[in-house]
Amino acid sequence: MAGMVTQGATYELFYWPSIQGRGEFVRLALEAAAAPYVDVARLPAEQGGGAKVLTALLAATDGGGPFFAPPVLRHGAVTLSQTAAILQYLGPRLHLVPDDEASRLKANHLQLTIADFVLETHDTHHPIASSLYYQDQQAEALRRAVLFIRNRIPKYLGYFERVLETNVAGGGQRTVGAALSYVDLSLFQIMVGLGYAFPRALARMAAGLPRLVALCDRVAAEPAVAAYLASPRRIPFNEHGIFRYYPELDP
Ligand SMILES: N[C@@H](CCC(=O)N[C@@H](CS)C(=O)NCC(=O)O)C(=O)O
């Protein structure tokens, strides 16, 4: 069993070194659980780090590869990509998901919904192609962002607000089960990310999302999370990641 082989191994995260991006959902889980991990591409090149290490890992065909895109997690004999799959793997090991199968399936489907939301968020500034500069698709971005703010943010956040409300075990305070889960951590990241990228829109919606706002505050106050957020390990938001602040997209 892979679990036996990997027991005790340090977690290795491979992700772009200068952005939070999708890697942040994995970093938050590792940090909240105080798990020993190395953010490999952020190490200096002489210590085996740098973006080239990441691109080499994506292309490698041993150990389960090649991989389409980061983040990638390596843990002993296991290497896997796709944020939701990585969190599905980490959840039980980091005690960030309940023990029962129904809860684990629920956490996974919620995380996949978050992945859809993340892609739509990315597409507000890159609605035509990731390979083009924002400035070369700004007209389309303006049209997309208006509809994202009007229709999609309310639909996604309204959905997660209802998920919190209907999770009886969590008393309206947790998305899955009674304790902190990786889905809670990811929703925290969604809320702070949207708050960075669309501060005006989110401020208008906050009153209608009391459970999500409270969840966000609670996650930020978790001692391990608070220590992480205050540390240099937390890369500041910037205009290279998923959540970008372009004032014209948030009128
Ligand atoms: N569904 C994947 C998406 C992965 C992804 O799009 N990764 C970005 C960085 S955040 C990337 O480098 N993509 C390269 C590409 O799509 O060509 C996940 O959730 O992990």
What's this, in brief?
By secondary structure, the protein is mainly α. The protein has helices at residues 2-6, 23-32, 51-59, 83-93, 101-125, 138-166, 182-197, 199-205, 210-221, 223-229, and strands at 11-14, 37-39, 72-75, 78-81. Helix 2 runs parallel beside helix 4 (83-93), helix 4 runs antiparallel to helix 5 and helix 5 runs parallel beside helix 7.
Task: Output the keywords.
4 strands, globular, binds glutathione, 2 domains, Glutathione S-transferase Yfyf (Class Pi), Chain A, domain 2, Glutaredoxin, 251 residues, mainly alpha
Give structural notes.
The protein is mainly alpha-helical. It has 2 domains: 2-93, Glutaredoxin (3-Layer(aba) Sandwich), CATH 3.40.30.10; 101-222, Glutathione S-transferase Yfyf (Class Pi), Chain A, domain 2. Helix content is 52%, strand content 6%. The chain has 10 helices and 4 strands, in the order αβαβαββααααααα. Strand 1 (11-14), helix 2 (23-32) and strand 2 form a beta-alpha-beta unit. Helix 2 packs parallel to helix 4 (83-93). The longest helix is centred in the middle third of the chain and has 29 residues, at 138-166. The chain is globular. The structure holds glutathione (GSH). Glutathione (GSH) binds next to loops.
